[in-house]
Write a structure and sequence with these properties.
The complex is a heterodimer of chains A (291) and B (319). Chain A is mainly α. Chain A has helices at 2-23, 25-47, 79-115, 117-132, 135-146, 150-176, 180-187, 192-228, 240-244, 250-255, 261-285. Chain A has eleven helices and no strands. Chain B is globular, with a radius of gyration of 21 Å. Classes of the chains: A mainly alpha (291), B alpha/beta (319).
Chain lengths: 291, 319
């Protein structure tokens, strides 16, 4: 009986959120698109005979035809297969790096905002220091030191991206903690920990969802950037970034668009749809927002 | 008034806020009173006189500059944070604005259950049942428990806030203008609920308000505050029949009487409330007092009590 009631509580919150999200058409469309895309990159290799690594001798830089759906690249690898496998890497890098940033940044911002004083000084100055680095240069150096691999790319992007989360959480927390319901929680005897995680954090989450979506999108872009410079996910492993890398050659850019246009387009579409989902979530999670 | 059956004794509490250039805002300046078990002490005064600050200081929600609050033989203002936290089970608060004192991300059930969760009272089932019972008691149906605060009216919300304040069975609740944000039509409802709770559970209230008729309705004793000080404290009847302090007299003369035949002298206070950053020397009220003398300008009056427990801080009382 009690369990059933508890489920009711959870259900009503999520039902509300889901209902509102579904009314947000662009976000809903983006979610469908992203889901299909993720399913495709996960399942297609299991269903189809895709081979992103084999160089097909004699089939270098071939335009799309029956055998190679999107043609082959300059060493004769199937572009479609590489697009699918590259999607796995790019999307994974995006989410893992953003998650890492959030896991570091949100608690630090929460602590800084809640406690103030020396704790705030320390954390926020650390944020300032991190933000004053030219991120790309540090990433290049770190990747060089760690050795180029998907893991080190995730680490490097994630470890440098937490400042955004920390600042945003901090600024939200200092306004939320002055709310009367936080004082009411304190008057009821709530511990600092409970005040932070049950009262302040849930009321600060909405902008963080948007930040998270931006962060995923930006991590995907950063990965492409690093790969484009040859310091991201190393070949032969495919990623959308290192597929676009091939466009560095002028003749590819102009005469062989099948090698990089699909990767670029899917990259843009993915980043856009993640951002739209973030927008939709922000609105749906606000209990006062009526759509 | 140092009666031994006091539930809570506030002794010489001061709260100064740091202002600019080394100035201090003396929001609460040397206030003493006590509250006995199960009584309602009304605290009235105009905006900015330090009523709310006093309420928060008594509960140690803001750090007092000086003074003590004795509860169960201990000065709660000097307790370590952990012990103070445990005491909050017995000392609760109802806030002024029911629109902002409930967490918008918690259902009503979760909000009301929070004190039980915090202090780990009872099993899960017991907590649920107690929350449901108390919500029913304040007039909410079971199906409304899973809703969020924004789905309720102001009166309903304030009843939820009251339910949250009394669920841990406190001895003492500070009510900071609990009905000023409510419509007149639901005021009486909420006030009656609070009185019923007091009758059944024996909880004592410190009832802060600027509305004299509300305070008259609910209080046993009334304290009048002016510029951070209590100027008069007395049982309700004595205060309304024989107000001792000129400030109280002026306040009472401002209550409208619903009878056109009674003509009464209105005492109009002149001037504004002086700044609490730089309160007048001597009696703080002398700048606006009809009876002020040289003595009032020089010397601060002590609170004097008569045999009925009626205390007035005025040099010229009973003249």
């Amino acid at each position: 009986m009690d369990r059933k009631r508890k489920e009711n509580v959870r259900n009503s919150f999520w039902r509300n959120t889901v209902q509102k999200f579904m009314k947000h058409r662009v976000a809903m469309f983006s979610l469908v698109f992203l889901t299909v895309e993720i399913l495709a990159v996960v399942l297609l290799p299991l269903l189809m005979d895709l081979d992103p690594y084999t160089t097909n001798v004699g089939c270098f830089s071939m335009a799309p035809d029956d055998r190679f759906l999107l043609g082959t690249d300059d060493v004769g690898r199937d572009v479609f297969s590489r697009l699918v496998y590259g999607g796995r890497v790019s999307i994974l890098v995006g989410f893992v790096s953003a998650l890492l940033s959030a896991v570091i940044g949100i608690p630090l911002g929460l602590l800084a905002g809640y406690y103030g004083g020396i704790i705030r000084m320390t954390i926020m100055r650390l944020v300032d220091i991190f933000m004053s680095f030219p991120a790309m240069i540090i990433q290049l150096v770190l990747v060089t030191v760690l050795g180029a691999s998907a893991t080190s790319v995730m680490l490097v992007i994630g470890l440098l991206g937490w400042t955004g989360f920390a600042r945003l959480t901090y600024s939200k927390v200092i306004s939320v903690k002055e709310q009367e319901y936080v004082e009411a929680a304190r008057a009821s005897g709530a511990t600092n920990f409970r005040q932070m995680f049950q009262y302040i954090l849930p009321n600060s989450l909405a902008p963080l969802f948007v930040q998270f979506s931006f962060s995923v999108a930006s991590a995907i872009l950063q990965e492409s950037g690093l790969s484009f410079l040859g310091l991201g996910v190393p070949v032969p492993t495919a990623s959308w970034g290192n597929m676009i890398y091939s466009a560095q050659s002028l003749s590819t850019l102009v005469y062989r668009p099948w090698m990089w246009v699909p990767a670029g387009m899917i990259l843009v579409a993915t980043v856009l749809s993640i951002n739209f989902i973030g927008d939709g979530l922000r609105d749906a999670l606000d209990p006062k927002m009526k759509i | 008034m140092n009666d031994s059956n006091a539930l809570l004794a506030v002794q010489n509490v001061k709260k100064y806020f740091k202002g600019t250039k080394g100035c201090y805002v003396k929001a609460v300046d040397d206030v003493s009173f006590s509250v006995t078990k199960g009584e309602t002490l009304g605290l009235v005064g105009e905006s900015g006189c330090g009523k709310s600050t006093l309420g928060r200081t008594v509960l140690n929600l803001v750090n007092a500059t000086e003074g003590g609050v004795i509860y169960e033989g201990r000065d709660i203002l000097k307790l370590p944070q952990r012990e103070m936290r445990m005491l909050r089970k017995k000392l609760q608060m109802v806030f002024q604005n029911p629109y902002s004192s409930l967490n918008p991300r918690m259902t009503v059930l979760e909000a009301v259950r929070a004190p039980l969760d915090i202090f780990g009272i009872g099993t899960k089932e017991e907590r649920f049942e107690r929350s449901r019972d108390i919500l029913r008691y304040v007039g909410l149906d079971e199906y409304q428990m899973y809703r969020y605060p924004h789905e309720f009216s102001g009166g309903q919300r304030q009843r939820i806030v009251i339910a949250r304040a009394i669920i841990s069975e406190p001895d003492f609740v500070v009510c900071d203008e609990p009905v000023s944000a409510l419509d007149v039509s639901v005021r009486a409802q909420v006030l009656n609920l609070m009185q019923d709770i007091q009758k059944e559970r024996g909880v004592a209230y410190l009832f802060i308000s600027h509305d004299l008729s509300v305070v008259k309705h609910i209080s046993d004793r009334i304290a009048v505050m002016y510029l951070g000080k209590i100027v008069e404290i007395s049982p309700k009847e004595a205060l309304y029949d024989r107000p001792g302090h000129p400030y109280t007299q002026a306040l009472l003369s401002a209550i409208p009487i619903p009878d056109t035949d009674i003509v009464r002298e209105r005492i109009i206070l002149k001037g504004d409330l002086p700044s609490p950053m730089d309160p007048p020397a001597g009696c703080r009220f002398h700048t606006r007092c009809r009876f002020a003398t040289e003595e009032c300008r020089m010397k601060e009056p002590e609170m004097r009590f008569d045999e009925s427990g009626h205390g007035v801080a005025c040099h010229r009382w009973k003249e």
